[in-house]
Amino acid sequence: MDELAAARRTMGTATLPAGDAYTVELRRRYDAPVDDVWDAITDPERLGRWLKPVTGDLRLGGAFELDGGEHGEILRCEPPRLLRVSWLFGPDADEWPGTSEVEVRLSPGPAGDTELELVHAAAVGEPMFPTYGPGAGGVGWDLHLLTLARLLADGEPLDHEEFQASPTGQEFMRRSAAAWGEAHLAAGGDPDQVAAAVKATTAFYANGGDA
């Protein structure tokens, strides 16, 4: 729960090749040097231990695919500060290019630590948002950044399935969904819509994807 509280969550806006987008934004500090954090988000072996196993042409302009089906192209790569990729998911995703991007920015801190900022932009009108709000992707990113924290701290990743099935994992996901609801409200979301989205997101993650 301390790891959940360590992150700051906001919503914003962006412009993608497909048009106007909303953003899900996470900022948090890791007690690790920037080169180590950069290695953890770009080295295939380490990336697979906190996110998902990855294959592809892992260089600027190359295409990648994660074990869960997420895929895209590497749009920007500026070691050790910035990585941006297109981010598509689902059987029909390739019919809608330019609708989703993820950018990670790293800033070295004064004590040898690193601030990580993750921004996931999705085109306005994408189908998940009306039901789940920012928690649709936000809870998943909270879980992955928790695993990254464990990996950077002691080299051991978190078993996602085991954690999500545990009482602590269930509480973590409930609190994450509520925190994304607060970010949605702060961004001007309708209170009734936000409440419904938090309820749907909590049910989705608590029931393993069966809302």
UniProtKB/TrEMBL annotation:
InterPro entries: ASHA1/2-like_C, START-like_dom_sf. SUPFAM superfamilies: Bet v1-like. Residues 31-152 form the Activator of Hsp90 ATPase homologue 1/2-like C-terminal domain. It holds the Pfam family AHSA1. Belongs to the AHA1 family. This is Activator of Hsp90 ATPase homologue 1/2-like C-terminal domain-containing protein. It comes from Amycolatopsis eburnea.
